[in-house]
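Many introductory courses stop at the sequence. We go one step further.
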Amino acid sequence: MEENLVFDIGMHRGEDSEFYLKKGFRVIGVEANQELCEEVIKKYQSEIQRGQLTIINKAIAQQPGRVKFYLNTKLSVWGTLLPEWAERNSRLGADSTECEVEATTMAALIDEFGTPYYAKIDIEGNDLLAVEGLANRSDRPKYVSIESDKDSFRAVRREISTLSALGYQRFKIVDQSEVTFQRAPKSPKEGKYADHLFEEGSSGLFGAELPGPWLTADETIEAYRPIFLRYALAGDDPFVTNSLARRVLRKVLRNAGFKWYDTHAMRE
């Protein structure tokens, strides 16, 4: 494992890479959307030239090659390889167009660049596939984060089970709507100190700088139960179909059903 290396899987516009670069990490940014990659290249030319940032314009898949990618026409962050996610996005008012992109694997990235200290994974429905790509590696990142599933409590249990099987014993659940309030500690616990304001939608702090206690796998699953109850009552696709009742529930729950959470995992 290379302690100065971070993988930003699902780089988007480099919102997270910017923070990792400020902290002095070498960053491998992976993004399937070519236009987003071009934006980041223009923004970080000096970091690219000195080798601190490497951009990989590819999707993460089970194997290398050409794959179908659903490019969202309304929200660039909703680009996905999964047709069911594209259909969900369409139901929510954000249609997609199909295109083909090159794909790579987590194993291929590690073979080329080394094992990262931290891997941030946010690739719209395929996060667990990326995690599973670590299964045959003898060395794995100390820290990993994924965007947790919102549709199925069973899927979250599988996420925790998969991470546990790979040796990740401690977990934190991070409310992504609170990330903009995070601040890096002035006595840094990861890399250098970075005076950074996190944008809405960014992943935020990681590793030893994350706020809150680390939980066991069982404690993490129990902590997700009330979150999924709120999803079921007032989320994107709630059980309650009556429009008035849904509006009341969302007001009472303060739109908690629309929140999303990242799961951070640590290997001890």
